[in-house]
Amino acid sequence: MKGISNFVKWFLYITTGILIICGVNYQLAGVEMVSVDVFWKILFSGFATTLVSVLLLPKEEDGKIKMYLKFGLHYAALCIVMIPLGCWFGWIDMEPSGIICMMLDVGGVYLAALFAYYIVDRKQADEINRMLKEKYGDAEQ
Q: pTM for this one?
């Protein structure tokens, strides 16, 4: 059950990040209307990258070096997934500028998802600490 809730959580973070990045890119490109299939592409991209994320994201028990290596591998894997998808969906051209643009977009989604995760995780930790203080009192006094 925890695996499914973890997948859903990351799917929401990542898909929201992809939606934001797509919105910014379309706005910068001067696109005023998008077709409905763009939303299905965003959902599919979110699903594909969530699968990669659930498999490769570092775990809390990983050491610093292992964690940094996993973050690097995770980012590379996301780029490897999104570059072909971006070409297939018509979001980028398979040329150096298109690939670099997609890598920057993946980085933007990566940062947005990690920021959302941090905010939610921090809020949950604060709530747990508050509940523990209510139950057991302030033991530091």
A: 0.80
Residue extents of the structural domains in the chain: 2-136
Q: What string of pLDDT tens digits covers the 141 residues of the chain?
A: 778 988 998 999 999 999 999 999 999 989 889 899 999 999 999 999 999 998 887 777 778 888 889 889 999 999 999 999 999 999 999 999 999 999 999 999 989 888 888 888 777 777 888 888 888 876 554
CB 19 within 8 A of CB 42: yes
- Helix/strand/coil for 62: coil
* Number of CB atoms found within 10 A of residue 70's CB: 15
Degrees to nearest 5, angle at CA 75 with 79 and 17: 80
Q: How many CA atoms lie within 13 A of 56 on its CB side?
A: 17
Closest-CA residue to 22 (of 117, 100, 137, 108): 108
At 135, which amino acid appears? Answer: K
Residues in the chain: 141
